[in-house]
Structure prediction request, 274 residues.
Amino acid sequence: MSNRAKALHSSENPLHEALAVSPLVITLLIVAGIFILIAIAYINHMLESSKLEKARLKADLIDRTRRNRSVSDNLPGQLMTPALKLLLSRLELQASDRLLALDKANSELRTRIAELREQVNKNELITIGNPVQPINTEARAKEVRFILENLHSQISRAAQDGLLQANEAKHWNKEIQNMLCLLHIDFFNNLGQQALQKGQPGQARLAFERGVQYLRKQPEPAKYQAQLAQLENHLNRANAMVLETSKPAENEVNQLTEGLKDLDDEDSWKKKSF
Prediction:
């Protein structure tokens, strides 16, 4: 073979090798491209999921702080205690601290956290600014009952999240039952007193009677002996007033009866005389 032929043959080999390798390279490039697309899609999915989870957690924490603050601010003063005020401040502070980690630029939240921390550090000397609110209408009684239901929901959620021990949550559930009972006592008592002031002893008797029946149905009626005795005294007083107001009608009937009797006696005398 001549030198020229050898040179031509050697120059064609790289071209053949390049053409032979090209399909493999193309396949690898396609696989790499698909892998990169899958990786990008997965990363985007993870970022989107993380973003959604962060938004969900933030909304949940905002809702919990709002609910705790609502109970703390709106529960009537006759039902609020230092221990309960401290508990609500603790729960709101815990949720607020977690919320601040998601919303670090929230200056209003930082101010609220400082207030809560100051309140919690007072322990049993915590400030209670809740005014005593008379519960004298059915609408107001339902509002307070809704507040107590909200409190029960927050305590149950805190127990599920491990923020409250099971024994502590059980204790507060009993306290809520007690507050619910005190709510009914206050409502029936005020309702009866209002009826007495309006000169409606029948309506007052009905209100006091409902209060007495409610207390007698409680699982621990002995716990409310003082309130039961007070409602029973009011009930007896209302009964006496109802009987007193019914006397004129009875007197009128008695007078009519006596008049009819006199008339019968007169008719009998006339008959005998005739």
Notes: The chain is about 85% helix and 0% strand. The radius of gyration is 41 Å. Confidence is low (pLDDT under 50) at residues 249-253, 259-274. The CA atoms of residues 65 and 215 lie 34 Å apart.
